[in-house]
Amino acid sequence: MTLAFNFIGIVTNDLSASLAFYRTLGLDIPEGAETEAHVEVLLDGGMRIGWDTLETIRGFDPAYELPSGSHRVAFAFEAASPAEVDEVFAKLVAGGARSRVEPWDAFWGQRYATVMDPDGNAIDLYAPLSVS
Asked: DSSP characters for 25-92?
């Protein structure tokens, strides 16, 4: 068997809000994509990330229900510096993202913070505290 993990899919209640959030994180999502039922972009390294509206998913899985409770998946974005972690965190929160974990210096040697995307997925921001 030759499987290759190369796609992450996000089901969203509000495609416009989700795409705006991920654009703030630096993803190159084409303008106007908000009008589509399915959007995907190719990331550096060959991985793809995509978004489907709830209606799109229910089009082939009518019984689909959004999960409830705490997040089940976390995505992590590496920043160039600890200061960038703080800057991006502040920008996302100012834009309406919910703070989960304020920036802190983790014992494993990273500046770390967590915000929630518009659909309740955890987004970790991190950078090494020092360069080796």
From this structure: TT--PPTTGGG-SEEEEEPTTS-EEEEEEHHHHHHH-TT-----SS-S-EEEEE-SSHHHHHHHHHHH
